[in-house]
Amino acid sequence: MEDVVVTYDIHSLLASPQRDFLIRNNADPVKIDSLNGKRVGLYFSASWCGPCQIFTPKLEEVYNEVAPKGDFEIVFVSSDWDEGSFRIYFSKMPWLAIPFSDSETRGRLDELFHVKENGIPRLALLDETRKVVTENGVDLIYEHGVEAYPFTLARIQEFKHREEEAKRNQTLRSILVSPSRDFVISSNGNKTLVSELEGKTVGLYFSMFSYRSSIEFTPRLVEVYEKLKAKGEDFEVVLIPLDYNEESFKEGLKSVPWLTLPFKDESISKLFRYFDISALPTLVIVGPDEKTLQPNAADAILNHGIAAFPFTPEKFAQLEEIRKAKDDSKKEEKSKDAWVCDGQVCTKA
Fold first, then answer.
1. pTM score, whole prediction
2. For residue 205, how many other CB atoms are within 10 A of its CB?
3. Does this entry carry the keyword ATP-binding (predicted)?
């Protein structure tokens, strides 16, 4: 079944009965008809949203490079709770916006582009014919930046093919090396070349030092890491830090023995999406052949400790058999305990 391509009339989409204009951050009005023939991004965001605060500067970098071409514009659709917050946040943006006072249009756009279900930041991209190219423009910008321009379906399809090819030919270098960096770092700042990790089992630890689940899991991973090191196993952990605060990151790094990507490294958001991270913490296991062994070994670490090493499918199958055997044994004991004997006869309780 083919995907349904949705097309909108830009004026009907953005206007209201009382308004046929958008505004700049100095409150100057701009006619909606000025968008005719342009590609348009609808940016759903808010000042109170931490992920939005991170994404907005990235979007601005792309906008500032693409906008001078004259065929692309962004329209900010605010999810702020009050006009003062909207004005302060919008004052730093170089693009247009739906007036904050038009809550009806903002609400309608939220519904049309599934903001409530998917959250913010959200970037819907429409081509010059007003077809919706993607509602997932945030990932597109994070992963490809200005290279994503001109934001066409063909361009997005090209990226999908590239990603599939990259996963087929995955290496530690393709995962961890960036154009500006071929190393990871330790807590004391020493650099380790990514090439030195080749041939090892590597855990990519997606975590945040201030996140409760990470705070609870990290000591367990430290214990397993140190035991495997003591046994001479070729195992390494590379932290993929998702912290917002650099001081929190630096302080947390002192408590762990492994390597890390630099704070807010350009590869972090790309890896987050490449491995389709949906929960924290996540420990992706990459085998000695540099292919992904496990999308998340955190539960295995919690339940089995070093017995989960080397995290292969065969090892996990063995652990599952052990778990089933224990469950069966518990059921059998429970079944025995369910009998009550009074000296003359035994009956089920």
1. 0.65
2. 26
3. no
